[in-house]
Amino acid sequence: MRQLMQYVYIFNKQNVYNKIGFFWFLALPILFFFIRFNAFKNNNMDIEMLNFIHIYWGFMLLTTVLSGVLLAIIQYRDSGFLKSFTFLSGNKHVIIFGKLLSQLLYIVVLTTVFNLIISVVYKIDFSQLFLKGLLTMLIAFIPICFSMLWMVIIPVNANNIAPIGTILLILFLYLANFGIETHSYFLYFMYSLNPVVYLSNILNMLNDFSFEIVIINALTTLIYLIIGFFSLKNMSIIPRKN
């Protein structure tokens, strides 16, 4: 536990120094929110508003996962950092989980600042928005990270993984915004494997607790965790050559 918190502290210091990254991860969703909100014309804190906002939470979460977790881990591996500190720590898992916890704190701060800004500008109830955003991120962040850890075991380096991550980010956001209409539980479950849809389902579960959405979220979380633990087990600490 002491080693874990030391790594959390180290990675938190990196996040504090990365002010440009924090600005862009925050500025882009706020900009797009301002553009689209004028057409939305609803500043009541209801289900419709939360479903509108969650897309922007999803963007911030996915950019944090892709850049702050996956790309960072690959860079640690290729620079030799992961190998060296694995030998010092005794295992690689304490480093990975230290990174995950530090980025969880990062996304909580990021979404809180985002929620505060839009609450002040559009006079939205901040307390409800903060609570729903906090609980959603605390529940969804680690499983979503696990769902995408497969990217660190494919035979590519950091330069090649960035375009893959960008394509996935655009695809996930587009599909989540596009939606799906089906009476098939299987098709809806496959659609729910999209991390942004999973985030939306967690939010819906918090708003309207139902057996159906709990089962879908539980199965999705289980699949995410299986992918994550498999990826952790097979993750190499040996640097890859460019």
Order of helices and strands: HHHHHHHHHH
Number of strands: 0
Rg, Å, rounded: 18 Å
Structure class: mainly alpha
Helix content, binned percent: over 70%
Please tally the helical runs, counting DSSP H or I stretches of 4 or more residues.
Answer: 10
Please tell me what the overall shape is: globular
Distance between the termini: 35 Å
Roughly what fraction of the amino acids lie in strands? Answer: under 5%
Uncertain parts: none
Largest sheet: none
Q: What is the averaged pLDDT score?
A: 84
In total, how many domains does the architecture comprise? 1
How are the SSEs placed, and which strands pair?
Layout (H helix, E strand, L loop, with lengths): L1 H16 L1 H22 L6 H33 L1 H9 L3 H30 L3 H22 L10 H21 L6 H8 L2 H13 L3 H24 L8
Helix pairs in contact: 1-5, 2-3, 2-5, 3-5, 3-6, 3-7, 3-9, 5-6, 6-9, 6-10, 9-10
Sum up the structure in keywords.
single chain; 10 helices
Notes on the structure:
The chain has one domain (2-234). It has helices at residues 2-17, 19-40, 47-79, 81-89, 93-122, 126-147, 158-178, 185-192, 195-207, 211-234. Helix content is 82%, strand content 0%. By secondary structure, the protein is an all-alpha fold. The chain contains 10 helices and no strands. The longest helix is centred in the first third of the chain and has 33 residues, at 47-79. The mean pLDDT is 84.
